[in-house]
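HUMAN:
Just now I want nothing more than another pair of eyes on a protein record. I would be glad if you read both lines and explained how they fit together. I have put the entry right below:
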Amino acid sequence: MRSRAGREAKRSPKEGLPPGSLVHVGERKVEHPRITVMDYDGDIFLEKTAASAEECAPLRETATTTWINVDGVHEAGLINGLGGAFGLHPLILEDIMTTAQRPKLEDLGTAVYIVLKMIELDEKGEGIVIEQLSLVFGSNFVLSFQERPGDMFDHVRERLRQGRGRIRKMGADYLAYSLLDAVVDHYFVVLEGLGEKIDRLEDELMADPDRATLHRIHALKREMIFLRKSVWPLREILAKIERIESDLVRKPTAIFFRDVYDHAIQVIDSVETFREVLSGMLETYLSSVSNRMNEVMKVLTIIATIFIPLTFIAGVYGMNFEHMPELKWRAGYFIVWGVMIALGGGMAVLFRRRKWL
Protein backbone atom coordinates (compact mmCIF):
# COMPACT_ATOMS: atom_id res chain seq x y z
CA MET A 1 0.00 0.00 0.00
CA ARG A 2 1.38 3.43 -0.98
CA SER A 3 2.42 5.58 1.97
CA ARG A 4 0.84 8.96 2.76
CA ALA A 5 4.09 10.71 1.83
CA GLY A 6 4.15 8.90 -1.52
CA ARG A 7 0.57 9.93 -2.27
CA GLU A 8 1.27 13.56 -1.40
CA ALA A 9 4.33 13.63 -3.65
CA LYS A 10 2.11 12.79 -6.62
CA ARG A 11 -0.31 15.65 -6.09
CA SER A 12 -0.44 18.41 -8.67
CA PRO A 13 0.97 21.78 -7.54
CA LYS A 14 -2.27 23.34 -8.86
CA GLU A 15 -4.51 21.28 -6.59
CA GLY A 16 -6.97 23.52 -4.72
CA LEU A 17 -6.05 26.67 -6.67
CA PRO A 18 -8.67 28.64 -8.63
CA PRO A 19 -8.78 28.42 -12.47
CA GLY A 20 -6.25 30.65 -14.16
CA SER A 21 -3.63 30.33 -11.41
CA LEU A 22 -0.17 30.63 -12.95
CA VAL A 23 1.77 27.65 -11.63
CA HIS A 24 4.37 25.85 -13.70
CA VAL A 25 3.59 22.16 -14.15
CA GLY A 26 6.35 20.09 -15.69
CA GLU A 27 10.12 19.83 -15.74
CA ARG A 28 12.12 23.03 -15.52
CA LYS A 29 14.50 22.78 -18.50
CA VAL A 30 16.24 26.16 -18.40
CA GLU A 31 17.54 28.30 -15.55
CA HIS A 32 16.42 31.70 -16.81
CA PRO A 33 13.88 32.39 -19.57
CA ARG A 34 15.11 34.12 -22.71
CA ILE A 35 13.03 36.45 -24.88
CA THR A 36 13.96 37.06 -28.52
CA VAL A 37 12.11 39.51 -30.74
CA MET A 38 11.88 39.83 -34.51
CA ASP A 39 9.97 42.82 -35.82
CA TYR A 40 9.59 43.25 -39.58
CA ASP A 41 7.64 44.15 -42.66
CA GLY A 42 8.51 44.15 -46.35
CA ASP A 43 11.16 46.84 -45.94
CA ILE A 44 12.50 46.78 -42.38
CA PHE A 45 13.78 44.09 -40.04
CA LEU A 46 14.75 44.31 -36.38
CA GLU A 47 16.08 41.48 -34.22
CA LYS A 48 16.93 41.79 -30.55
CA THR A 49 16.85 40.12 -27.15
CA ALA A 50 14.33 41.62 -24.73
CA ALA A 51 14.99 41.90 -21.01
CA SER A 52 11.36 41.85 -19.85
CA ALA A 53 7.73 41.58 -20.93
CA GLU A 54 7.31 45.35 -20.52
CA GLU A 55 9.89 45.92 -23.24
CA CYS A 56 7.75 43.89 -25.65
CA ALA A 57 4.42 45.59 -24.86
CA PRO A 58 4.76 48.58 -27.26
CA LEU A 59 5.26 46.19 -30.23
CA ARG A 60 1.59 45.27 -30.21
CA GLU A 61 0.62 48.72 -31.43
CA THR A 62 3.02 48.87 -34.37
CA ALA A 63 2.08 48.37 -38.03
CA THR A 64 4.82 45.77 -38.45
CA THR A 65 4.63 42.03 -37.72
CA THR A 66 6.26 40.93 -34.47
CA TRP A 67 7.49 37.48 -33.48
CA ILE A 68 8.29 37.08 -29.79
CA ASN A 69 9.84 33.76 -28.77
CA VAL A 70 10.20 32.75 -25.12
CA ASP A 71 12.52 29.90 -24.08
CA GLY A 72 11.44 28.78 -20.62
CA VAL A 73 7.87 28.92 -19.31
CA HIS A 74 8.39 28.55 -15.56
CA GLU A 75 8.37 32.24 -14.55
CA ALA A 76 4.80 33.31 -13.82
CA GLY A 77 5.67 37.01 -13.82
CA LEU A 78 7.03 36.90 -17.36
CA ILE A 79 4.10 34.88 -18.74
CA ASN A 80 1.59 37.13 -16.97
CA GLY A 81 3.34 40.25 -18.29
CA LEU A 82 3.22 39.07 -21.90
CA GLY A 83 -0.37 37.94 -21.45
CA GLY A 84 -1.36 41.38 -20.20
CA ALA A 85 0.52 43.15 -22.98
CA PHE A 86 -1.15 41.10 -25.74
CA GLY A 87 -4.57 40.65 -24.17
CA LEU A 88 -4.45 36.91 -23.41
CA HIS A 89 -7.00 35.25 -21.13
CA PRO A 90 -5.64 33.89 -17.78
CA LEU A 91 -6.75 30.35 -18.73
CA ILE A 92 -4.55 30.53 -21.83
CA LEU A 93 -1.60 31.63 -19.70
CA GLU A 94 -2.30 28.73 -17.36
CA ASP A 95 -2.22 26.31 -20.31
CA ILE A 96 1.09 27.77 -21.49
CA MET A 97 2.68 27.01 -18.11
CA THR A 98 1.19 23.49 -17.98
CA THR A 99 3.50 21.49 -20.21
CA ALA A 100 1.41 18.30 -20.35
CA GLN A 101 -1.33 19.81 -22.49
CA ARG A 102 -3.00 17.79 -25.24
CA PRO A 103 -2.46 19.46 -28.65
CA LYS A 104 -5.42 21.76 -29.32
CA LEU A 105 -6.60 25.00 -30.92
CA GLU A 106 -8.72 27.76 -29.40
CA ASP A 107 -10.14 30.77 -31.21
CA LEU A 108 -9.97 33.70 -28.78
CA GLY A 109 -11.48 36.25 -31.14
CA THR A 110 -8.55 38.65 -31.11
CA ALA A 111 -6.01 35.81 -31.31
CA VAL A 112 -5.68 32.10 -32.03
CA TYR A 113 -4.02 29.83 -29.49
CA ILE A 114 -2.38 26.55 -30.60
CA VAL A 115 -0.67 23.89 -28.49
CA LEU A 116 1.40 21.21 -30.21
CA LYS A 117 4.39 19.01 -29.55
CA MET A 118 7.88 19.44 -30.95
CA ILE A 119 9.53 16.05 -31.37
CA GLU A 120 13.24 15.36 -31.81
CA LEU A 121 15.56 12.38 -31.59
CA ASP A 122 17.78 12.32 -28.53
CA GLU A 123 21.54 12.85 -28.76
CA LYS A 124 22.18 9.14 -29.40
CA GLY A 125 19.43 8.98 -32.03
CA GLU A 126 17.80 6.08 -30.16
CA GLY A 127 14.72 7.66 -28.52
CA ILE A 128 12.46 10.67 -28.91
CA VAL A 129 12.33 13.88 -26.90
CA ILE A 130 8.97 15.66 -26.73
CA GLU A 131 8.60 19.35 -25.89
CA GLN A 132 5.47 21.47 -25.71
CA LEU A 133 5.19 24.46 -28.03
CA SER A 134 2.50 27.10 -27.47
CA LEU A 135 1.70 29.48 -30.34
CA VAL A 136 -0.47 32.57 -30.11
CA PHE A 137 -0.99 34.68 -33.20
CA GLY A 138 -3.06 37.81 -33.72
CA SER A 139 -3.41 40.42 -36.42
CA ASN A 140 0.20 41.59 -36.22
CA PHE A 141 2.00 39.35 -33.71
CA VAL A 142 3.06 35.78 -33.04
CA LEU A 143 4.05 34.58 -29.58
CA SER A 144 5.84 31.24 -29.24
CA PHE A 145 6.57 29.63 -25.87
CA GLN A 146 9.07 26.79 -25.62
CA GLU A 147 10.32 24.81 -22.64
CA ARG A 148 14.00 25.17 -23.53
CA PRO A 149 16.31 26.73 -26.13
CA GLY A 150 16.85 24.89 -29.40
CA ASP A 151 14.20 24.23 -32.03
CA MET A 152 13.64 23.63 -35.73
CA PHE A 153 12.92 27.28 -36.62
CA ASP A 154 16.41 28.34 -37.73
CA HIS A 155 15.54 28.29 -41.43
CA VAL A 156 12.44 30.44 -40.68
CA ARG A 157 14.67 32.94 -38.89
CA GLU A 158 17.10 32.98 -41.82
CA ARG A 159 14.28 33.66 -44.28
CA LEU A 160 13.18 36.58 -42.13
CA ARG A 161 16.70 37.97 -41.82
CA GLN A 162 17.41 37.73 -45.54
CA GLY A 163 13.91 38.68 -46.71
CA ARG A 164 13.64 35.60 -48.92
CA GLY A 165 10.30 34.53 -50.31
CA ARG A 166 6.97 35.94 -49.20
CA ILE A 167 7.37 35.59 -45.44
CA ARG A 168 8.20 39.28 -44.79
CA LYS A 169 5.12 40.40 -46.75
CA MET A 170 2.41 37.95 -45.68
CA GLY A 171 1.75 38.88 -42.05
CA ALA A 172 1.37 37.04 -38.74
CA ASP A 173 -0.84 34.21 -40.02
CA TYR A 174 1.78 33.23 -42.58
CA LEU A 175 4.48 33.29 -39.90
CA ALA A 176 2.32 31.00 -37.74
CA TYR A 177 1.94 28.68 -40.75
CA SER A 178 5.73 28.68 -41.27
CA LEU A 179 6.33 27.64 -37.66
CA LEU A 180 3.69 24.89 -37.83
CA ASP A 181 5.15 23.68 -41.12
CA ALA A 182 8.64 23.53 -39.62
CA VAL A 183 7.38 21.41 -36.70
CA VAL A 184 5.47 19.00 -38.95
CA ASP A 185 8.36 18.71 -41.44
CA HIS A 186 10.67 17.77 -38.57
CA TYR A 187 8.32 14.89 -37.74
CA PHE A 188 9.47 13.29 -41.00
CA VAL A 189 13.11 13.54 -39.84
CA VAL A 190 12.19 11.79 -36.59
CA LEU A 191 10.20 9.13 -38.44
CA GLU A 192 13.14 8.50 -40.77
CA GLY A 193 15.41 7.90 -37.78
CA LEU A 194 12.88 5.60 -36.13
CA GLY A 195 12.39 3.77 -39.43
CA GLU A 196 16.12 3.03 -39.64
CA LYS A 197 16.03 1.78 -36.06
CA ILE A 198 13.11 -0.52 -36.89
CA ASP A 199 14.99 -1.85 -39.94
CA ARG A 200 18.02 -2.72 -37.79
CA LEU A 201 15.76 -4.37 -35.24
CA GLU A 202 14.06 -6.38 -37.99
CA ASP A 203 17.44 -7.68 -39.21
CA GLU A 204 18.34 -8.64 -35.66
CA LEU A 205 14.98 -10.36 -35.26
CA MET A 206 15.58 -12.51 -38.34
CA ALA A 207 19.17 -13.34 -37.41
CA ASP A 208 19.32 -14.14 -33.69
CA PRO A 209 16.54 -12.71 -31.50
CA ASP A 210 17.00 -12.73 -27.73
CA ARG A 211 15.32 -11.18 -24.70
CA ALA A 212 17.09 -7.85 -25.34
CA THR A 213 15.42 -7.77 -28.77
CA LEU A 214 12.04 -8.14 -27.08
CA HIS A 215 12.81 -5.24 -24.73
CA ARG A 216 13.80 -3.01 -27.67
CA ILE A 217 10.58 -3.88 -29.51
CA HIS A 218 8.51 -2.96 -26.46
CA ALA A 219 10.47 0.29 -26.01
CA LEU A 220 9.81 1.25 -29.63
CA LYS A 221 6.12 0.43 -29.24
CA ARG A 222 5.93 2.77 -26.23
CA GLU A 223 7.63 5.53 -28.23
CA MET A 224 5.11 5.03 -31.02
CA ILE A 225 2.29 5.42 -28.52
CA PHE A 226 3.77 8.72 -27.30
CA LEU A 227 4.30 9.81 -30.88
CA ARG A 228 0.74 8.95 -31.85
CA LYS A 229 -0.67 10.89 -28.88
CA SER A 230 1.38 13.90 -29.92
CA VAL A 231 0.65 13.80 -33.65
CA TRP A 232 -2.91 12.51 -33.94
CA PRO A 233 -4.63 15.67 -32.51
CA LEU A 234 -2.67 17.80 -34.99
CA ARG A 235 -5.05 16.72 -37.74
CA GLU A 236 -7.94 18.14 -35.73
CA ILE A 237 -6.06 21.41 -35.14
CA LEU A 238 -5.28 22.00 -38.81
CA ALA A 239 -8.81 21.05 -39.85
CA LYS A 240 -10.13 23.69 -37.41
CA ILE A 241 -7.83 26.32 -38.89
CA GLU A 242 -9.31 25.62 -42.34
CA ARG A 243 -12.84 26.09 -40.97
CA ILE A 244 -12.12 28.98 -38.64
CA GLU A 245 -14.28 32.05 -39.22
CA SER A 246 -11.81 34.74 -38.35
CA ASP A 247 -10.03 37.56 -40.14
CA LEU A 248 -6.84 36.39 -38.46
CA VAL A 249 -6.45 33.61 -41.07
CA ARG A 250 -6.72 35.21 -44.49
CA LYS A 251 -7.73 33.31 -47.60
CA PRO A 252 -4.28 33.55 -49.26
CA THR A 253 -2.80 31.85 -46.19
CA ALA A 254 -5.50 29.21 -45.70
CA ILE A 255 -4.22 27.13 -48.62
CA PHE A 256 -0.81 26.87 -46.92
CA PHE A 257 -2.43 25.52 -43.75
CA ARG A 258 -4.18 22.94 -45.95
CA ASP A 259 -0.76 21.83 -47.21
CA VAL A 260 0.42 21.34 -43.61
CA TYR A 261 -2.75 19.32 -43.00
CA ASP A 262 -1.77 16.97 -45.86
CA HIS A 263 1.70 16.56 -44.36
CA ALA A 264 0.19 15.80 -40.95
CA ILE A 265 -1.96 13.05 -42.50
CA GLN A 266 1.20 11.53 -44.04
CA VAL A 267 2.90 11.60 -40.63
CA ILE A 268 -0.09 9.90 -38.98
CA ASP A 269 -0.14 7.22 -41.70
CA SER A 270 3.57 6.58 -41.17
CA VAL A 271 3.12 6.28 -37.41
CA GLU A 272 0.27 3.79 -37.87
CA THR A 273 2.38 1.79 -40.33
CA PHE A 274 5.28 1.65 -37.86
CA ARG A 275 2.91 0.51 -35.11
CA GLU A 276 1.65 -2.32 -37.30
CA VAL A 277 5.22 -3.30 -38.24
CA LEU A 278 6.22 -3.42 -34.56
CA SER A 279 3.15 -5.51 -33.70
CA GLY A 280 4.14 -7.91 -36.49
CA MET A 281 7.71 -7.99 -35.18
CA LEU A 282 6.44 -8.88 -31.72
CA GLU A 283 4.41 -11.75 -33.17
CA THR A 284 7.43 -12.85 -35.21
CA TYR A 285 9.59 -12.87 -32.07
CA LEU A 286 7.05 -14.96 -30.17
CA SER A 287 6.75 -17.34 -33.13
CA SER A 288 10.54 -17.60 -33.34
CA VAL A 289 10.81 -18.45 -29.64
CA SER A 290 7.99 -20.98 -30.00
CA ASN A 291 9.63 -22.57 -33.05
CA ARG A 292 12.95 -22.77 -31.26
CA MET A 293 11.24 -24.50 -28.33
CA ASN A 294 9.51 -26.88 -30.71
CA GLU A 295 12.85 -27.80 -32.32
CA VAL A 296 14.35 -28.54 -28.91
CA MET A 297 11.35 -30.62 -27.92
CA LYS A 298 11.49 -32.52 -31.23
CA VAL A 299 15.14 -33.48 -30.70
CA LEU A 300 14.47 -34.55 -27.12
CA THR A 301 11.42 -36.56 -28.21
CA ILE A 302 13.40 -38.36 -30.94
CA ILE A 303 16.19 -39.20 -28.49
CA ALA A 304 13.66 -40.50 -25.97
CA THR A 305 11.89 -42.54 -28.67
CA ILE A 306 15.15 -44.20 -29.73
CA PHE A 307 16.08 -45.07 -26.17
CA ILE A 308 12.67 -46.49 -25.17
CA PRO A 309 13.21 -49.92 -26.85
CA LEU A 310 16.85 -49.94 -25.74
CA THR A 311 15.75 -49.27 -22.18
CA PHE A 312 13.21 -52.10 -22.49
CA ILE A 313 15.90 -54.58 -23.60
CA ALA A 314 18.25 -53.44 -20.86
CA GLY A 315 15.42 -53.78 -18.34
CA VAL A 316 14.55 -57.32 -19.43
CA TYR A 317 18.13 -58.55 -19.15
CA GLY A 318 18.61 -56.73 -15.91
CA MET A 319 16.05 -58.94 -14.13
CA ASN A 320 17.51 -61.36 -11.61
CA PHE A 321 15.81 -64.56 -12.82
CA GLU A 322 18.02 -67.63 -12.63
CA HIS A 323 16.51 -69.55 -15.56
CA MET A 324 16.88 -67.17 -18.52
CA PRO A 325 18.07 -69.01 -21.67
CA GLU A 326 20.30 -66.21 -22.95
CA LEU A 327 22.24 -65.88 -19.71
CA LYS A 328 24.28 -69.03 -20.47
CA TRP A 329 25.17 -68.03 -24.01
CA ARG A 330 28.85 -67.38 -24.54
CA ALA A 331 28.13 -64.62 -27.09
CA GLY A 332 24.95 -63.37 -25.37
CA TYR A 333 26.49 -60.05 -24.28
CA PHE A 334 27.64 -59.19 -27.80
CA ILE A 335 24.35 -60.31 -29.36
CA VAL A 336 22.34 -57.98 -27.07
CA TRP A 337 24.66 -55.10 -27.90
CA GLY A 338 24.30 -55.84 -31.61
CA VAL A 339 20.49 -55.93 -31.37
CA MET A 340 20.45 -52.64 -29.43
CA ILE A 341 22.79 -50.90 -31.89
CA ALA A 342 20.88 -52.20 -34.90
CA LEU A 343 17.55 -51.17 -33.39
CA GLY A 344 18.76 -47.68 -32.48
CA GLY A 345 20.49 -47.19 -35.84
CA GLY A 346 17.45 -48.43 -37.75
CA MET A 347 15.15 -46.00 -35.94
CA ALA A 348 17.57 -43.12 -36.60
CA VAL A 349 17.63 -43.97 -40.33
CA LEU A 350 13.82 -44.16 -40.39
CA PHE A 351 13.50 -40.74 -38.73
CA ARG A 352 16.05 -39.33 -41.14
CA ARG A 353 14.14 -40.58 -44.20
CA ARG A 354 10.94 -39.04 -42.87
CA LYS A 355 12.85 -35.77 -42.31
CA TRP A 356 12.22 -35.75 -38.59
CA LEU A 357 15.96 -35.35 -38.03
Q: What stands out?
A: The radius of gyration is 35 Å. The domain at 295-353 is CATH 1.20.58.340 (Methane Monooxygenase Hydroxylase; Chain G, domain 1).
